[in-house]
Amino acid sequence: MKHTHYILILLIIISLTNLTAQIRYVSKTGSSTPPYTSWATASDSIQKCIEICNEGDTVIVGNGVYKETLLITKAIYLLGTSMDSTIIDGTGLNGSKPDFEGVTIWVEANTFIENFNLIGKGLLPLTTVILSDMHPLSIRSCRIKNAFGGAGVSWNILQMYNVIISNTDVPIGIYSISSEISVINNCIILASSYSRAINDWRGNTIIENNLIIKTGGSPSTGIRLQNPYYKLVKNNILLCGNSSISIDSFIRDSVLIVNNNLGYSRDEGIWQPNGNPALKILNNIIFKNNNSISANDTNKHRTNYNIFWKNVKNQTPHLVMGPNDIIADPMFVKDDTIPGYPSNFDYHLQAFSPAIDAGNPEILDPDGSRSDIGAFGGPGGEEYKYIDYPPLPPKGFAFNVISDSNLIKIKWDYNTENDFRHYRIYKDTTDFSNCDSSTFYKTMDTSLFLDSFSNETKLFYKITSEDNQGNESYPGNTINIILVGVGEPQIKIIENYLLYQNYPNPFNNETKITYSLKNRSYVKLMVYNLLGELEKVLINEEKESGMHEAILRFDNSFSSGIYLYRIEVIGENNIPVFSDMKKMIYLK
Fold first, then answer.
1. What is the CATH architecture assignment of 498-586?
2. How far apart are CA 154 and CA 583, in angstroms?
3. Domain boundaries, the chain
4. 3-42, pLDDT tens digit by residue?
5. DSSP-derived 3-state class of residue 515
6. Residue of 494, 507, 484, 491 whose CA lies nearest to 561
7. DSSP letter, residue 46
8. Phi and psi for 553 in degrees, rounded to 5?
9. Secondary structure (DSSP) of 301-356
10. What is the CA radius of gyration of the chain?
């Protein structure tokens, strides 16, 4: 209902600003008889309707698949009924512009397009889904897919809001000499291969609140700024194959890169050849790239208020870190795998992250406090609750038994969370499932543990991490040491099927459920009320072996009380191998 009101208000505004404008209609049950001014007299073709339009007309298109290409030569507002089910499909079709047969929608006038699923001719050379020649183009709430190029404008501006682009080699191209500002805002850009997700030449551009992910193929650049004038790149998450952001040497005005997360690039988070002082780099988290920031010459880039983490080279020869730059674990809620779309990462900050309120003090968060560092900080970020998650469980184990001294040596990767306190060691002579007072052995401040043995034939260890607030992780894999003949002990990791208690519990709105798989298996994870009625299916798919997490979110429609969550694991030959169920408490 809200969306209907929005459309009606928008149409009223259009009508008031252009009293000669008409509202015209297209439907799958329409006809070829103009003027198409009601649903009853709608056109059966979008192109037929466009051809009789006057400047400023609005064309409303009903749900359905329209197998056609468009040539727009008059300033119109093209409004679909639904981004999912109002489809313009150019698969296999030649474009309406003879010299540009690979273009599904060719634009030669100021055009506003909203609520469509736009499909190109195919992932072929010289194909583009929508291309404007020398005229402003505005695209909102659309899906764009299946062509070499997604959306592009030559010699003018492009404005895109809430657009999802996939299966394209160059999702967005802007070639502008206009003094007006192009805007790419709140878009999801899945770059399949080739070169650049956003290729931006000259002009003035704001690129804000976008998720840009490299999904396959050869390495690519997230944002390429060529011969730039004014560019503002803020509050984006860029996870790319080559460089997250690449900037040409000549900056005509200024480039500000602020409050972004830039990660997983093969080369660098930011490339700019000569360290131009017109480039400002503030409040970013630059992580898991080969180089953090690179140039052609040494000691050229100067940054401040950024966090660098797990880049192969955090401090490159090209970078002079500012006094408020730090190398530290930003404590993302979830970043333990190569990211993919849509849901296996979460770059919100945990409570006690060193990025909280640590940004440039002249930049404020939406709540008026000093800005956080990263994509969710600054005025373009968002307010959210910092959840105090437990530390990550210990991993990266290495073992050794020193027989002549009767010593067991266990090493693992040291935790890097800002609020990490120590490790808890659990030990028994038989395998155990619960880490509690009956098996607790000692605490350790380091990730090196030495233990003596005498007459035991078997020892079992589990190790957990604990933070300053007393939150304890689930244990790493069980370490089993078989002391056979003492001179030749056997050491192995025991992996099991396990369902852990949710955290936090009780919870409000959101909780995390962790489970462990011994082997690759098909997993169903379900939530029930106390009557045994199914409320949610969280997981229903095949998963690899190892630890996994699922996030459960309840909205206000759920009542406070006790709920159950149950796991069912199906192994090879469709044989059930594990099931378990636990209780949790939801409090509004």
1. Sandwich (2.60)
2. 58
3. 398-493, 498-586
4. 334 444 444 444 444 557 899 999 999 999 999 999 999 9
5. strand
6. 507
7. H
8. -120, 130
9. EE-BS-EEES-TBSS-TTEE--TT-EE----EEE-SS---TTTS-EEEEPTT-TTT
10. 28
From first to last of its 588 residues, the chain has per-residue pLDDT tens of 333 344 444 444 444 445 578 999 999 999 999 999 999 999 999 999 999 999 999 999 999 999 999 999 999 999 999 988 999 999 999 998 888 899 999 999 999 999 999 999 988 889 999 999 999 999 999 999 999 999 999 999 999 999 999 999 899 999 998 899 999 999 999 877 656 899 999 999 999 999 998 876 666 789 999 999 999 999 999 998 789 999 988 899 999 999 999 999 989 999 999 888 899 999 999 999 999 999 998 988 999 999 999 999 999 999 999 999 999 999 999 887 777 776 678 899 999 999 999 999 999 999 999 999 999 999 999 998 898 989 999 988 888 888 778 889 999 999 999 999 999 999 999 888 788 999 999 999 999 999 988 877 888 999 999 999 999 998 888 888 887 654 566 666 767 788 888 888 888 888 989 898 988 999 999 999 887 889 999 999 999 988 888 999 998 889 999 899 999 999 887 888 888 889 999 998
Q: What does the alpha-carbon distance between residue 378 and residue 285 come to, in Å, rounded to a whole number?
A: 13
Measure the CA–CA gap between 168 and 71, rounded to whole angstroms. 21
Q: Which two tokens stand for residue 255?
A: 């480039």
Residues in the chain: 588
Q: Which of 79-89 are b and which e, b meaning 16 or more Cβ less than 10 Å from the residue's Cβ?
A: bbbebeebbbb
Instruction: Report the predicted TM-score, pTM, of the whole model to 2 decimal places.
Output: 0.85
The whole-angstrom separation of Cα 247 and Cα 268 is: 12
Rounded-to-integer distance, Cα 424 and Cα 448, Å: 12
Q: What is the CATH architecture of 398-493?
A: Sandwich (2.60)
pLDDT computed for residue 332 by the predictor: 96
CB 377 within 8 A of CB 457: no
Q: Which of 178, 175, 231, 220 is nearest to 200 (CA)?
A: 175
> CA quadruple 241, 236, 184, 90: dihedral positive or negative?
positive
Tokens standing for residue 138: 């505005």
Task: Give the list of residues 6+ apart from residue 575 with CB closer than 8 angstroms, or none.
Answer: none
β-bridge pairing 211-214 and 521-528: unpaired
Q: Which residues pair with 586 in a beta bridge?
A: 507, 561
Tell me which amino acid residue 115 is: N
Take residue 398 and report the two structure tokens written for it. Answer: 């290495």
3-state secondary structure 157-204: CEEEECCEEEEEEEEEEEECCCCCEEEEECCEEEECCCCEEEEEECCE
- pLDDT tens-place string over residues 39-71: 999 999 999 999 999 999 999 999 999 999 999
> What's the number of CA atoms in the CB half-sphere (13 Å) around residue 303?
32
Chain Cα centroid distance, residue 351: 20
- Whether 498-586 and 398-493 are alike in CATH topology: the answer is yes
**CA distances in angstroms from 116 to 14, 82, 172, 371, listed in the order given:** 20, 6, 17, 36
CA of 411: how far to CAs of 23, 171, 396, 477, 484, in Å? Answer: 71, 46, 8, 13, 22
Q: What is the distance between the alpha carbons of residues 228 and 252, in angstroms, rounded to a whole number?
A: 6
